[in-house]
Amino acid sequence: MSPRYSVPFLGLAIFNILNGKSSAQSFGNNTIVGCDVVDCPLSDDSVLANCQVVNETFVNVGIARIPFRSESPLDGLSWTEGVEFEDGDEGPIYDTRFYLGAPPTLSLGGLGACALFFRRTSDNVFFRTGNPNITEETQGVCEDALSQSCISALNRRALDFEYDFTSVDDACSSLGRHFLQNFDDECEEFAVNGNWSEISVTAIAGQRDLEPISAEQNSTSNCWPVVPKSHELIFVESFREEGDSFVDTIHDKLFGIHPILTVFFPRNSTIITSPESHMTCLKTLSANDGRLVGDQLGDESSASLLSPSKVAFASVISMAISIFWL
Known about the structure:
alpha+beta, four-stranded antiparallel β-sheet, 7 helices, about 25% strand, signal
């Protein structure tokens, strides 16, 4: 188990976590991009991003394509993850939200589609390319984080499932139970205690298609975390968890990998004629965009630059940075 450090050591961790610059790369199936590509604003004199989407303010974002073949009619769909926090009674509350990015011309009507979020994985789930000690910047594809054999087994299980249900909601719920009750040995090292103990399932297309964020809803936003910017954002799911201000917790909440299995199956549509299953391993990247943490050192008012709900946690970060640089 990794050691848990408190405030005096937090400054170094925040420096390492947030003082990176993501390289802008071409956005394809093998790439995760973050704030440097979608131009998240930063809070003034702060190491935190200020990416406001409707009523949410994200301190970090990550975007990854769902790995369809280029000739697939569904090619272009992507996942966006945004992380925000607020003050809770017992400590910070971390809110991780997931959006589907979609070309405005693509209609999922008539399709069935499910998103399975694998919320509890082992420490063996990490990208093995780049420097593994700088996890805020590491990225890759799921075959790198989970292994090709595990991904193939998960996709095979989803493709072999019978989707003959009255509703898409029922099909997705049953698919989630199927994964919880049947474990693939190829994934043993990536699960906790030999099973997927926590999978959340959401129907993303079917008889109640999720709606994209409207122009009216987006009127107060200063950020549109999807590539390209012409694509729509569709809110799918959020996970709120109470936590603490220890280094390993912050690091895990900001930069942990989230495997998402996206499954599509035909209903009343001819877009596809058989089920498709694709795994995306999503994480956020550093929001700092190369701006030095040292530029903000000694600024005791930095917490006030964030919204009131974030003051308590931001104060801990500011104090930790100040202590580190004394």
